[in-house]
Every structure is written in structure tokens, then in C-alpha cells.
Amino acid sequence: MQTIRKAVVPAAGLGTRLHALAKGQPKEMLSIGGRPMIYYTVHEAALSGLEHLYVVINKRKPSLRRYLESDNLETDLQREESGNRVSIPRITFIDQPAPLGSGDAIYRAKEMIGQEPFALMMPDFFLFGSSPALSQMIPSYERVRKDVVGVLVLGSTEAEGFGNVGIFQPTPLEEDLVEVRGISEKLKTPLMLENGKKVHKAIGRYIFGSHFFSYLKRLRPLEGEWDDAPAFRALCKERKVVGKILEGTGFDVGNPLGYCAAKEKFAP
Question: At residue 268, does pLDDT exceed 70?
């Protein structure tokens, strides 16, 4: 039986990077390939065998909630799967009344996750390939029983559409696995590489043990935004975190350049 049954999907953020494109609607409802961005997160979860999604949301995004509760989601899924029966995970909504950060959003799912390992799915990442990101990561987690993060190897062209947080120097473990000992902090400058240079970047797909909540709590700031990155950075230092190098083409669709690149590639 598959170990990973649950996922947390933080979807209550302001999406400030996409304000100009979103024009007042939730960024998760922006269209890619004729479907809302959030569809691809649910589709990935379904194909990866997950049973339950905990979507962190707020009252400022009623259109997002309506779509996730509507028959349109299942219609879109079954149409893409050409009649092959794929079960949509059960969706439970968790309210985040104020935009207090991704750390706050994830921590609100603590009691519902319990002592199980779980996936963390940031809805502004999309991977195009023969297998979804989580489908590639779950077998690695079940084999090594360590926290796992999805990793892309980016060249100068691909890097343009990504933010610069999450860059790290890999320590090789196996052909498609590396050890992640620390990641770069979030900077305002864009990610730019010289021609021929490549970097390893952790992206918005993770599998954590329930111990991750204790890291979040320990590193909660006294004031200001509660980000999850400091907790993940501490996890890398104190435990062995494994990076799964993903096959496929990734897009940071929370970034204007990445969103436009994905939209162009998946134009219906």
C-alpha cells in the first residue's frame, strides 16, 4: 500500500508576482492550456494515487473554491484521461483568514495530517513530462524513507522563468538522487545563468514526515510573514534530505515569465 496518502496545497496567498496578469482573480484560476492552474495540481495528485488534499484557502478566493467543488473539475480530468477512470482525491478546505505566509498555511493542516508523512504541493509549479512530479518522488521516498524534494537541473534558458530561491550544491547519492544540505535564500533579483552553466534547484514539490511541523513551529517569527523556507533550510542541516531529479520540463507559473512560457507551450 502506498505510504503517501495526503497532501497540503497552500492556495491562500496574494500572488503578488502575477497581479498584472490575474486582474483581480486568484492566480490559481489563471488559464494554462484552457484549464485553471489549480487543475494541474489536482490532476497530478490524482495520477499519483493521493487520497486527500487539504487546500488552504480564504474568503477572498470564492471562484477558486467554486471550481474545486464543481463538476467542471472532474469533467476536465476525465476528458484529459480519455475515459480512463481516475479518482479525484477528497478535498478539504482549511481557512487562512489573513495572508500570513506559507508556513502559517502549512501548519494549519497539522492536526489533519497527524503522524503520517505527507506531500506539500505548491500550485504555482507545473511539470510537463511522461510522469507527474509526485509519481516520480513517491517511490524514492518509500525506498529511502527520508524527506524528499523535487529537483530540476536548469540551464541558462530554462532558468529565466524561475525565481532564484532554492538553488543548492548537490552531493550525489544515486543516479537520480542527490543530498540537499542547504538551499539559497529568496532574493529579489531574477535567476540568471551564463551560457553553458547549470544549477540544481529545489522546486515546489516535497514529501515530509510529520516532524516538519515541529520545524515550522520552532522557526515561526515573532512578527511578519511566516515562511516555510527557514524550516526547510533547518531540516536540510539537521536531517538527511534527498533531492529527486525530475524528468520533464518544469515551469514556475507563479512567475510572469514562467507563466507566459507555460501558457505558450500549452496553448489549446
Answer: no
